[in-house]
Design goal:
Blueprint lengths: L1 E3 L6 E6 L4 E9 L5 H6 L4 E2 L3 E3 L6 E6 L7 E9 L8 E2 L6 E4 L10 E6 L17 H7 L4 E5 L25 H12 L2 H9 L2 E4 L17 H11 L14 E4 L4 E5 L22 H13 L4 E5 L30 H13 L5 E5 L5 E6 L9 E5 L19 E7 L4 E7 L3 E8 L4 E8 L5
Parallel strand pairs: 10-11, 11-12, 14-15, 15-16, 16-18
Antiparallel strand pairs: 1-2, 2-6, 3-4, 3-5, 3-7, 7-8, 7-9, 10-20, 13-14, 17-18, 17-19, 20-21, 21-22
Helix pairs in contact: 2-4, 3-5
């Protein structure tokens, strides 16, 4: 089970049953107690009954509404036979999950969250002895939420056994195979502990389908997308069941803009130019309007691919896969330049881009107008469990200064947000902070 896409007054609870079942979500406000004592001190609320079936691989997601901002909640899943009116009972051996709603937009309080991505690539999957132990390090830091920026399965890669837990040594090309990839990851005990205790916001990147894919042009995208939506608590729009980009206001000090960099992109191999897009016209307009209208202190943009890494393609999908302009003239830099220019023209302060995908850490400060003041930052982290990437210097188009760069270890980023400053720590699998910095908020808009 998992909770995700939490707002100030709602949360999406996801779960999977072992077979067809009638199910409910039961929830109650947290009062500082644990387990059954917490249940006895507050009357639980129950959702409508939903049915799980093979059509969605026995998964379901239930939106809880009418919640109180800035409040902790516990929940559990009740299940029963798929037919009849038998009383639903708590799911076996699963206990109670937990999440907290976002503080309201007028509430300013220190908060911290984690982001990372890239799980189980290049044969570094569920180790038979330790599993994905990095998730226990995340839980220990008690973040308000975890932002996962894709490559949470590697549909186009194998997980050989040994040394990994059996079940992932295949390439996915069908819906059932993509589902099996997600089930394989979800079997990890440490990931289960994370999902039961910390809410998540999730977006995909390329390996949820295959390396460097461009959505409208890849025949495997629909089945990869369906499996993604079945296995993660992602709240899609009511008028577009496949819209994955969304924004979340999380207190007076933070607004999240979660981009979908895959579903609408032009072919990577096309030359960069005014007609080439990673976001598509509607999503780009949504981002620009949202940034301009945001009153949050910090505007955090989640982009699965980095801004300035020259991430080249391969024989199957040629062309640069990131925003940067490649040596072959491909990339998506023209579109990014328009976004950057709007940030400059509207004097939008305290913009931070978060990225993963390249399997190394790089912290960049950008001064595209070359006036000596940083106009936005980019934080790249990861992988959670994949092969390390080759550390590359950022493209010079937007005048970056690299504050830190490092590769060769598993990691996540820990961000602390407040009205006056944003703190960053890069934490490795053993819990050591490999880099820390504090960025003062600019108040001169």
């Amino acid at each position: 089970m998992a909770a995700g896409d939490v707002t100030a007054d709602s949360a999406l609870v996801w779960f999977r049953t072992n077979g067809p079942a009638r199910s409910q979500v039961e929830w109650w406000p947290e009062d500082g107690q644990m387990g059954s004592q917490s249940m006895r001190s507050a009357a639980p609320i129950r959702s409508a009954v939903v049915a799980t079936s093979r059509a969605r691989d026995f998964t379901a997601a239930v939106r809880l509404t009418g919640l109180t901002p800035g409040t902790g909640y516990r929940y559990r899943i009740l299940t029963g036979p798929p037919e009849g009116e038998a009383e639903l009972k708590p799911a076996r051996d699963r206990g109670a999950g937990r999440f907290a709603t976002a503080p309201g937009p007028d509430s300013s309080r220190p908060l911290r969250f984690v982001w990372s991505g890239d799980l189980g690539g290049q044969g570094r999957c569920r180790d038979a002895g330790t599993g994905y132990r990095i998730f226990d390090q995340i839980v220990q830091r008690q973040p308000a939420f975890v932002l996962l920026l894709g490559d949470l399965i590697y549909g186009d890669d194998r997980c050989p056994s040994p040394p990994n837990v059996p079940g992932g040594d295949f390439l996915a090309t069908t819906l059932e195979e993509y589902r099996a990839k997600h089930r394989y990851q979800r079997g990890d005990a440490a990931l289960q502990r994370l999902l039961a205790s910390v809410p998540v916001y999730v977006i995909w990147d390329d390996h949820e389908v295959r390396n460097n894919f461009s959505g409208p042009h890849d025949p495997l995208m629909p089945v990869g997308r369906q499996a993604l939506l079945e296995y993660w608590p992602i709240g899609t729009s009511g008028d577009d069941e496949f819209r994955l980009y969304r924004r979340v206001r999380y207190s007076a000090d933070l607004e999240l803009f979660i981009l979908d960099t895959r579903q609408y992109r032009s072919r990577n191999a096309e030359p960069d130019g005014p007609s080439k897009t990673m976001l598509g016209e509607a999503q780009r307009r949504w981002l620009l309007e949202g940034l301009a209208a945001s009153s949050a202190t910090w505007k955090v943009i989640a982009t699965s691919v980095p801004l300035s890494n020259p991430k080249t393609g391969n024989k199957l999908n040629s062309g640069n896969d990131s925003w940067a302009r490649g040596a072959d003239g491909t990339g998506f830099q023209v579109e990014l330049r328009g976004i950057v220019q709007m940030i400059l023209d509207r004097r939008i302060r305290n913009v931070v881009w978060l990225a993963t995908d390249v399997h190394y850490v790089q912290i960049n400060a950008y001064d595209p107008d070359r006036d000596g003041a940083t106009d936005f930052h980019e934080f790249i982290c990861g992988p959670l469990s994949s092969a390390p990437g080759i550390l590359l210097p950022p493209d010079r188009a937007f005048n970056p200064t690299t504050l830190h760069g490092e590769s060769g270890f598993l990691n996540f980023g820990l961000v602390t947000v407040g009205p006056d400053a944003l703190g960053l720590a890069i934490v490795d699998e053993a819990g050591r902070s490999r880099f820390t910095t504090t960025i003062p908020a600019r108040k001169d808009r």
